[in-house]
Amino acid sequence: MRTLIHLLIGIFFGIILFKSEAASWFRIYEMFRFDAIHMYGIIGSALAIGIVSIKAIKRFHVKSFFGAQIVIEPKERGFKKYLLGGIFFGLGWALAGACPGPIFTLIGAGFLPILVVLVSAIVGTYLYGILRDKLPH
Amino acid sequence: MDLVYNPWPWYVSGPLIAFIMIILILMGKRFGMSSNLRTLCTICGAGKQADFFKFDWKSQKWNLVVVLGTVIGGFIGANFLSPETAVAINPSTVSELHTLGFVSAGEAYLPTELFGVEVFSDIKTLALLIIGGILVGFGARYAGGCTSGHAISGLSNLQLPSLIAVIGFFIGGLFMVHVLFPLIF
């Protein structure tokens, strides 16, 4: 049952990413040129609702659907890894025009070359795992 | 039905993405796509080479199911909900892309110059996709998250590390588009 719900959430998410054009390379390029409000509006409105909702979940000690306490763990403290990792990610996001969510959406949409991006992203993740101890964090 | 078939405006899409995050939190999970790439490494046996991949991947099976859904959603969105998939970006963006050689700008969902099937026989374009993918995977794990984990989930929880990461995303993205693109294309 839970698996089915997770699948449905994913399906809806995939549809949203495609229909919102957040999975379009063109929209990412346009965003980095500050030529349209589109992507900023998506992230901004998601944040406005997200911030209020998470505040409410914490304030009213909302339980999960299954009655468990909801714990939203804070991100680990740090600076270098977030900035440096973020810069690497941003370079790739702009070049490939897709972040991890849209990569999967675009596979479903039938763009075969995105498979090259997916396999490379898995390789990139692997490289991080191998080089982790040598990188500044 | 036009409301569904036309591209969804940002003020519909953004709140829906927030809804996805909240529903996952209420399911007792969290919203983050790039961690699946790590799970896939572990399934492929990367735990033998690096401790970073030694974890019980079955605990992340739920997220792989979400990803499977995301693929199916992309299929449905592209094949059943979008009679027209050309992305109407700003005309000035289109003309800028034309000067860079992207003639498909304004007429396609993705640039055919990068995502048409011809790229499989074009070494340069293939290399660009490979480099882009490696940067996305490497950077997301280095920063501990991607757009969903930091820009949406982390910032919604007012996390300073996520703000630093998002600033990094933009430093990298702006450098790529404004400095490197004119050299590459």
TrEMBL record, chain A:
Superkingdom, natural source: Bacteria
Transmembrane segments: 38-57, 82-104, 110-131
Alphabetical list of Pfam families matching this protein: DUF6691
Alphabetical UniProt keywords: Membrane, Transmembrane, Transmembrane helix
Name of the protein described by the UniProt record: YeeE/YedE family protein
TrEMBL record, chain B:
Residues spanning the membrane: 12-28, 62-81, 123-143, 163-184
UniProt keyword annotation of Membrane present: yes
Primary subcellular site in the record, as a coarse category: membrane
UniProt membrane topology term: Multi-pass membrane protein
Designated name of the protein: YeeE/YedE family protein
Location(s), subcellular: Cell inner membrane
Family of this protein: Belongs to the TsuA/YedE (TC 9.B.102) family.
Keyword hit for Transmembrane helix: yes
InterPro entries cross-referenced by the UniProt entry: Sulf_transp_TsuA/YedE
Keywords noted in UniProt: Cell inner membrane, Cell membrane, Membrane, Transmembrane, Transmembrane helix, Transport
GO CC annotations, alphabetized: plasma membrane
Pfam families found in the cross-reference section: Sulf_transp
